[in-house]
């Protein structure tokens, strides 16, 4: 058992991994704690795996696992947490956007009794549009979700062993970890740090990927969107009823012949739009049930120097 496990998901990070590793060691050594670093190569197509293998070969405190293809950051985090043996686990990005200097502060807060310490970034240096969209999204999420997730509170966090074990015991295969971390509860504290740009390489989060991630977040934690669909349907039905009565009354009282095209088309278009969207929502849940019911493993390990759980990446 070591004091600290640092879990680092890496996807095509060969340009920055050495700098990251150096900075991490520099930050960890002065704490006087024993530590291990668990790197997870998420099916990189560059030389990330070779770099990790040689880092692991040169230092006993470093272990790695490499996926057979890109399974996504959530799966990489999961594998890393399964590898970890530390009394606390810190999740960090490999691109130096999560400054290792903050580790000391996180550890100190943990010693004050917190099970989760979240380093929350502000949005310095980010495009205005992206900032505005993210803000709007988190407002929406606050409204919809049963669990609370904060803007900028990403995966840079420290978890106590019992919190990690709790997250690992959750069996779902669609893992939205921001939500899971919030769901497990325990005393959580967060502090804000200034956002930094990635040191080298490219962000893997384009617009489409972010949108899908956003949808995952909204749907992973409850069925409120379904409820919303029912409400919308009911309100539309009521207003259609009122409108129909009004037309009938108008014809009976005034004998007016109603020119119907415009209203008809509008109604059809609006209703089909809503129906399609609702079907989509239902389909999304059905798809999720289908997906979960297959109980596939979260990832497939191609290569690792870890002898424990990750190798047999069986479901949960
Ligand atoms: N990452 C990963 N698998 C992926 C995408 C990203 O393991 O499919 C890792 C990546 O190597 C990095 C972290 O997740 O360590 C954050 O990714 P990125 O910097 O691209 O995201 P951003 O900081 O732009 O949100
Ligand atoms: Mg990044």
Automatic annotation (TrEMBL):
SUPFAM superfamilies: Nucleotide-diphospho-sugar transferases. Keywords: Glycosyltransferase, Membrane, Transferase, Transmembrane, Transmembrane helix. It comes from Streptomyces maoxianensis. It comes from the Bacteria. Its EC number is 2.4.-.-. PANTHER family: GLYCOSYLTRANSFERASE CSBB-RELATED, UNDECAPRENYL-PHOSPHATE 4-DEOXY-4-FORMAMIDO-L-ARABINOSE TRANSFERASE-RELATED. Residues 307-316 have a biased composition (Polar residues). It holds the Pfam family Glycos_transf_2. This is Glycosyltransferase family 2 protein. Residues 5-167 form the Glycosyltransferase 2-like domain. InterPro entries: Glyco_trans_2-like, Glycosyltransferase_2, Nucleotide-diphossugar_trans. The chain crosses the membrane at residues 228-249, 261-286. Belongs to the glycosyltransferase 2 family. One of its GO terms (molecular function) is glycosyltransferase activity. It is an enzyme of class 2 (transferase).
């Amino acid at each position: 058992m070591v004091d600290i496990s640092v879990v680092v998901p890496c996807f095509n990070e060969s340009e920055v991994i050495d700098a990251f590793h150096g900075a991490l060691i520099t930050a960890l050594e002065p704490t006087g704690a024993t530590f291990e670093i668990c790197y997870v190569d998420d099916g990189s197509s560059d030389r990330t795996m070779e770099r990790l293998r040689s880092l692991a070969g040169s230092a006993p405190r470093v272990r790695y696992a490499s996926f057979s293809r890109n399974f996504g950051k959530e799966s990489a985090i999961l594998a890393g947490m399964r590898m970890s043996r530390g009394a606390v686990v810190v999740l960090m990005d490999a691109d130096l956007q999560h400054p290792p200097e903050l580790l000391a502060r996180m550890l100190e807060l943990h010693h004050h009794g917190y099970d989760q310490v979240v380093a929350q970034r502000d949005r310095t240096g980010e495009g205005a549009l992206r900032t505005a969209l993210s803000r709007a999204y988190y407002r929406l999420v606050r409204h919809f979700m049963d669990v609370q997730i904060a803007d900028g509170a990403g995966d840079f966090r420290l978890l106590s062993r019992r919190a990690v074990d709790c997250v690992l015991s959750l069996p779902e295969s669609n893992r939205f970890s921001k939500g899971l971390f919030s769901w497990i509860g325990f005393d959580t504290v967060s502090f804000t740090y200034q956002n930094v740009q990635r040191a080298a390489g490219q962000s893997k989060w384009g617009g489409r990927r972010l949108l899908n991630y956003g949808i995952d977040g909204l749907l992973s934690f409850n069925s409120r969107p379904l409820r919303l669909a029912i409400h919308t349907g009911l309100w539309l039905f009521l207003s259609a009823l009122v409108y129909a009565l009004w037309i009938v009354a108008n014809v009976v009282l005034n004998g007016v012949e109603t020119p119907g095209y415009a209203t008809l088309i509008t109604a059809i278009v609006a209703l089909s739009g809503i129906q399609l969207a609702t079907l989509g929502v239902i389909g999304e849940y059905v798809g999720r049930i289908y997906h979960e019911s297959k109980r596939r493993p979260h990832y497939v390990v191609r290569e690792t120097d870890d002898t424990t759980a990750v190798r047999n990446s069986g479901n949960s």
